[in-house]
Task: structure prediction
Amino acid sequence: MSWAMAAGGMNMLGGISGFVGNSKSAKSASAVAEYNAQITERNAKVFEQEAEQKILMGDVANVRNVQEFGRLMDSAQVAYNNSGVVSTSDTPLLVLLENARQADQDLAFTDYNTQVSAGQSREKATGLRLQSNITRMEGAAKARAYQMKAYQSLISGAQGAAGAMRFS
Result:
Protein backbone atom coordinates (compact mmCIF):
# COMPACT_ATOMS: atom_id res chain seq x y z
CA MET A 1 0.00 0.00 0.00
CA SER A 2 1.39 3.38 -0.90
CA TRP A 3 1.52 6.45 1.28
CA ALA A 4 -0.83 8.21 -1.08
CA MET A 5 -3.46 5.51 -0.68
CA ALA A 6 -3.08 5.61 3.10
CA ALA A 7 -3.38 9.41 3.10
CA GLY A 8 -6.43 9.16 0.84
CA GLY A 9 -8.01 6.63 3.17
CA MET A 10 -7.30 8.81 6.20
CA ASN A 11 -8.80 11.84 4.44
CA MET A 12 -11.92 9.83 3.59
CA LEU A 13 -12.13 8.46 7.14
CA GLY A 14 -11.79 12.00 8.54
CA GLY A 15 -14.53 13.23 6.22
CA ILE A 16 -16.86 10.41 7.24
CA SER A 17 -16.07 10.97 10.91
CA GLY A 18 -16.82 14.71 10.54
CA PHE A 19 -20.04 13.87 8.74
CA VAL A 20 -21.19 11.49 11.50
CA GLY A 21 -20.20 13.90 14.29
CA ASN A 22 -21.92 16.89 12.74
CA SER A 23 -25.01 14.82 11.91
CA LYS A 24 -25.25 13.82 15.57
CA SER A 25 -24.76 17.45 16.59
CA ALA A 26 -27.64 18.40 14.28
CA LYS A 27 -29.92 15.88 15.98
CA SER A 28 -28.77 17.07 19.41
CA ALA A 29 -29.42 20.71 18.54
CA SER A 30 -32.97 19.83 17.49
CA ALA A 31 -33.56 17.71 20.60
CA VAL A 32 -32.24 20.38 22.97
CA ALA A 33 -34.34 23.07 21.29
CA GLU A 34 -37.46 20.90 21.50
CA TYR A 35 -36.81 20.14 25.18
CA ASN A 36 -36.32 23.83 25.99
CA ALA A 37 -39.44 24.74 23.99
CA GLN A 38 -41.48 22.18 25.92
CA ILE A 39 -40.28 23.64 29.23
CA THR A 40 -41.22 27.12 28.05
CA GLU A 41 -44.66 25.90 26.96
CA ARG A 42 -45.13 24.25 30.36
CA ASN A 43 -44.33 27.58 32.01
CA ALA A 44 -46.85 29.25 29.70
CA LYS A 45 -49.51 26.80 30.90
CA VAL A 46 -48.64 27.74 34.49
CA PHE A 47 -49.31 31.40 33.69
CA GLU A 48 -52.61 30.48 32.00
CA GLN A 49 -53.62 28.55 35.12
CA GLU A 50 -52.53 31.51 37.25
CA ALA A 51 -54.80 33.78 35.21
CA GLU A 52 -57.75 31.45 35.74
CA GLN A 53 -56.95 31.26 39.46
CA LYS A 54 -56.90 35.06 39.69
CA ILE A 55 -60.31 35.27 38.04
CA LEU A 56 -61.71 32.63 40.37
CA MET A 57 -60.30 34.39 43.44
CA GLY A 58 -61.67 37.73 42.20
CA ASP A 59 -65.10 36.16 41.84
CA VAL A 60 -64.83 34.69 45.35
CA ALA A 61 -63.79 38.09 46.71
CA ASN A 62 -66.78 39.73 45.01
CA VAL A 63 -69.17 37.16 46.46
CA ARG A 64 -67.74 37.79 49.92
CA ASN A 65 -68.00 41.54 49.41
CA VAL A 66 -71.65 41.23 48.36
CA GLN A 67 -72.36 39.11 51.44
CA GLU A 68 -70.55 41.61 53.69
CA PHE A 69 -72.44 44.49 52.11
CA GLY A 70 -75.72 42.66 52.69
CA ARG A 71 -74.86 42.27 56.38
CA LEU A 72 -73.91 45.96 56.58
CA MET A 73 -77.20 47.01 54.97
CA ASP A 74 -79.16 44.72 57.30
CA SER A 75 -77.36 46.20 60.32
CA ALA A 76 -78.06 49.74 59.13
CA GLN A 77 -81.70 48.87 58.56
CA VAL A 78 -82.01 47.39 62.05
CA ALA A 79 -80.27 50.41 63.60
CA TYR A 80 -82.63 52.81 61.82
CA ASN A 81 -85.67 50.75 62.82
CA ASN A 82 -84.54 50.54 66.47
CA SER A 83 -84.05 54.28 66.63
CA GLY A 84 -87.52 54.92 65.26
CA VAL A 85 -86.24 56.46 62.01
CA VAL A 86 -87.96 55.47 58.78
CA SER A 87 -85.09 54.14 56.64
CA THR A 88 -86.93 54.54 53.35
CA SER A 89 -87.12 58.30 53.43
CA ASP A 90 -84.86 61.35 53.36
CA THR A 91 -81.34 61.09 54.82
CA PRO A 92 -81.45 57.40 55.81
CA LEU A 93 -82.47 56.46 52.27
CA LEU A 94 -79.67 58.63 50.83
CA VAL A 95 -77.15 56.99 53.17
CA LEU A 96 -78.29 53.50 52.16
CA LEU A 97 -78.17 54.43 48.46
CA GLU A 98 -74.66 55.88 48.85
CA ASN A 99 -73.54 52.70 50.60
CA ALA A 100 -74.94 50.68 47.70
CA ARG A 101 -73.17 52.91 45.15
CA GLN A 102 -69.86 52.52 46.96
CA ALA A 103 -70.34 48.75 47.19
CA ASP A 104 -71.01 48.59 43.43
CA GLN A 105 -67.91 50.70 42.81
CA ASP A 106 -65.80 48.40 45.00
CA LEU A 107 -67.08 45.37 43.10
CA ALA A 108 -66.27 47.04 39.79
CA PHE A 109 -62.74 47.92 40.99
CA THR A 110 -62.14 44.38 42.20
CA ASP A 111 -63.37 42.97 38.90
CA TYR A 112 -61.25 45.42 36.89
CA ASN A 113 -58.11 44.70 38.91
CA THR A 114 -58.73 40.97 38.61
CA GLN A 115 -59.10 41.22 34.84
CA VAL A 116 -55.94 43.33 34.53
CA SER A 117 -53.95 40.91 36.66
CA ALA A 118 -55.27 37.89 34.76
CA GLY A 119 -54.48 39.66 31.48
CA GLN A 120 -50.91 40.22 32.59
CA SER A 121 -50.55 36.51 33.34
CA ARG A 122 -52.00 35.65 29.93
CA GLU A 123 -49.57 38.06 28.27
CA LYS A 124 -46.69 36.28 30.02
CA ALA A 125 -48.06 32.99 28.74
CA THR A 126 -48.27 34.36 25.20
CA GLY A 127 -44.71 35.67 25.44
CA LEU A 128 -43.49 32.27 26.59
CA ARG A 129 -45.30 30.51 23.75
CA LEU A 130 -43.69 32.88 21.27
CA GLN A 131 -40.34 32.19 22.93
CA SER A 132 -40.88 28.44 22.52
CA ASN A 133 -41.51 28.99 18.80
CA ILE A 134 -38.30 31.01 18.54
CA THR A 135 -36.41 28.28 20.42
CA ARG A 136 -37.64 25.69 17.93
CA MET A 137 -36.66 27.88 14.98
CA GLU A 138 -33.20 28.46 16.47
CA GLY A 139 -32.81 24.71 17.00
CA ALA A 140 -33.83 24.03 13.41
CA ALA A 141 -31.34 26.64 12.17
CA LYS A 142 -28.54 25.13 14.27
CA ALA A 143 -29.45 21.67 13.03
CA ARG A 144 -29.30 22.85 9.41
CA ALA A 145 -25.93 24.49 10.06
CA TYR A 146 -24.55 21.26 11.56
CA GLN A 147 -25.97 19.25 8.66
CA MET A 148 -24.23 21.61 6.22
CA LYS A 149 -20.99 21.13 8.15
CA ALA A 150 -21.54 17.38 7.96
CA TYR A 151 -21.78 17.48 4.18
CA GLN A 152 -18.82 19.87 4.01
CA SER A 153 -16.77 17.37 6.04
CA LEU A 154 -17.76 14.56 3.72
CA ILE A 155 -16.94 16.59 0.61
CA SER A 156 -13.67 17.83 2.11
CA GLY A 157 -12.66 14.27 2.99
CA ALA A 158 -13.47 13.10 -0.53
CA GLN A 159 -11.51 16.00 -2.04
CA GLY A 160 -8.54 15.25 0.22
CA ALA A 161 -8.68 11.57 -0.71
CA ALA A 162 -8.87 12.40 -4.40
CA GLY A 163 -5.96 14.80 -4.07
CA ALA A 164 -3.83 12.23 -2.19
CA MET A 165 -4.70 9.53 -4.73
CA ARG A 166 -3.52 11.79 -7.55
CA PHE A 167 0.00 11.47 -6.28
CA SER A 168 0.02 7.67 -6.22
